[in-house]
Amino acid sequence: MKGKLVFAAAALSIATSCVFAAGETVTVGGQAMYPTRDIVDNAVNSADHTTLVAAVKAAGLVDTLKSPGPFTVFAPTNEAFAALPAGTVDTLVKPENKAMLTSILTYHVLTGRYDFRKLDTAIKAGGGKASIRTVNGEMLTFTENGPRNIVVADAAGHTADISTYDVYQSNGVIMVVDKVLMPK
């Protein structure tokens, strides 16, 4: 009986640590991102993602990103948006450019929960790269650049580094990226 209890306790400990690892609270933009909140409820608290949040609101994607999902969002930082040519963001958030803004934002979203492990597995299965269809219908390409370093490439071959991995949400996962990716 004692052996069974030790085994059961060890199994419970392993199961609990796996759940905790997938549900840790991560800090992004100086604020805690709670795994019990959805993508939007967490993102609005990040000081590093105010431009992204404003763009999501302007595109009318708040309800979508609050839905059950799951989604994987490659979330460009404010610095990533600031690196775009001058006036780009101001132009994109105008009502007459909503379709273009929506296309760019949904190019940063995958249907499903793609954490580091799932992306890594897809890259290895693809012989060193994986192409995954985004919500806007176009592909993003993923490769590895060293251990635990995945690079995301857009349709034109421009790349973004993932600076923060596996920010779990109740309806998906956020990966923080350092560039805005552009569809065709």
Domain module count: 1
Order of helices and strands: HEEHHHEHHHEHEEEEE
The largest beta-sheet arranges its strands as: 4-3-9-8-7-6-5
Sequence stretches where pLDDT stays below 50 over 5 or more residues: 1-21
Number of helices: 8
- Architecture (CATH level 2) name: Roll
CATH top level class name: Mainly Beta
Determine the CATH superfamily.
FAS1 domain
- Shape descriptor reads globular
- Looking at the structure, the CATH topology is FAS1 domain
Strand content: 25-35%
Describe the overall structure.
Residues 36-181 form the FAS1 domain. Keywords: Signal. This is Fasciclin. Residues 1-21 form the signal peptide. Pfam families: Fasciclin. Helix content is 38%, strand content 26%. It has helices spanning 2-22, 39-43, 50-59, 62-66, 78-82, 88-92, 98-106, 116-125; strands at 26-28, 31-33, 71-76, 109-111, 129-133, 139-144, 150-153, 159-169, 172-177. The protein is globular and about 40 Å long. Helix 3 (50-59) packs across helix 7. It is α+β, with helices and mostly antiparallel strands and 184 residues long. The strands form two sheets. The chain has a seven-stranded mixed β-sheet with strand order 4-3-9-8-7-6-5. Strands 1-2 form a two-stranded antiparallel sheet. The protein has one domain: FAS1 domain, CATH 2.30.180.
